[in-house]
Amino acid sequence: MTSDAHRPNYFVIWLWLIGLVFLSISASFFLPKGAAILLIFLVALIKAVLVLLNYMHLKFERPILYGLVIVPLLIVAILIFALFPDFVTHGQLPHPAP
Amino acid sequence: MDTRAETLTATGIPTGKIGVWWFLASEITVFGGLIACYIVVRLGSGGWAEASSHLNFSLALLNTFVLLSSSLTMVLAFAAVEDRKPKKLHINLLLTLLLGLTFLVIKGFEYAGEIAQGFTPGAGIFWSFYYGMTGLHALHVLAGIVVNLILLIAALRDTLRPNEHRVELAGLYWHFVDIVWIFLFPLLYLT
């Protein structure tokens, strides 16, 4: 539970979330593809953290709850890197120089 | 042994809340696994941007605003519980529920349009991922709507009072569903 003094301004957080959606869309239209993708996913990450900290009140919770978020994310990251060689580089390593 | 949801665990966190966070941790691996597979398969093959261009961007953008707004009303429902304002709780739970339903209706229209053009789940790997990920997400929205409906009925009957913490727990789930969409939207519609 949060006290009145600690309660974030939920409406301002919502405005930020909406603003960040427009930033992502603008990036997809106006930036080169590589930079746009980087910015779009950075913005998605910021939005997710805003929701986690303010709407899910993670910033008022004990650190052990952060573990419950971070550990599964690490598992997902491991999954991505484990699959990378097979699907993205199709199991081919760069040829050594002759 | 006291097994009520408000009993504090050894961590100092109530049982109900830590239970929901454990559940969400498992959900992170479910959606995270799907998203991870989507990313690596997409990076390893071409033609995805072309397939993605057939999606209805406007409806998806509208749905993004709908879901973000439903998160606001859900957290306002939680604030109403803390402030002991039953009317505000009823209104915000009802709004959350209606916004959730709006999301599903819009998604339904989007699916109908895509299927009418021949883009069924079997139309290609992109479409299999698209229907798989958004379909699973829509099922989660539906589950959240059912939970919120149960809470709203209890609140209207004035039987929620001993279990008001359930609004916070339902909110945790609802915001998680919102976060999943925060990632699905750029993955499917913006890249």
- Number of discrete domains of chain A: 1
Portion in beta strands of chain A? under 5%
pLDDT average of chain A, as an integer? 85
What's the CATH architecture of chain B?
Up-down Bundle
Fraction of residues in helix of chain A? over 70%
Which structural class is indicated by helix and strand composition of chain A? mainly alpha
CATH top level of chain B is Mainly Alpha
CATH superfamily of chain B: Cytochrome c oxidase, subunit III, four-helix bundle
* CA(first)-CA(last) distance of chain A: 65 Å
User: Most extensive interface, residues per chain?
Assistant: A-B, 45 and 47 residues
Which range best describes the helical content of chain B: under 10%, 10-25%, 25-40%, 40-55%, 55-70% or over 70%?
over 70%
Task: Give a quick set of tags describing it.
heterodimer, A: 98 residues, mainly alpha, 70% helix, flat, B: 191 residues, Four Helix Bundle (Hemerythrin (Met), subunit A), 6 helices, 0% strand, globular
Task: Write up what this structure looks like.
The complex is a heterodimer of chains A (98) and B (191). Chain A has helices at 10-30, 33-55, 63-87. Chain A has one domain (10-87). In chain A, helix 1 (10-30) runs antiparallel to helix 2 (33-55). The longest helix of chain A is centred in the last third of the chain and has 25 residues, at 63-87. By secondary structure, chain A is mainly α. Chain B has one domain (15-190): Four Helix Bundle (Hemerythrin (Met), subunit A). Helices cover 79% and strands 0% of the residues of chain B. Chain B is built from six helices and no strands. Chain B has helices at residues 15-43, 48-52, 57-83, 86-116, 125-156, 165-190.
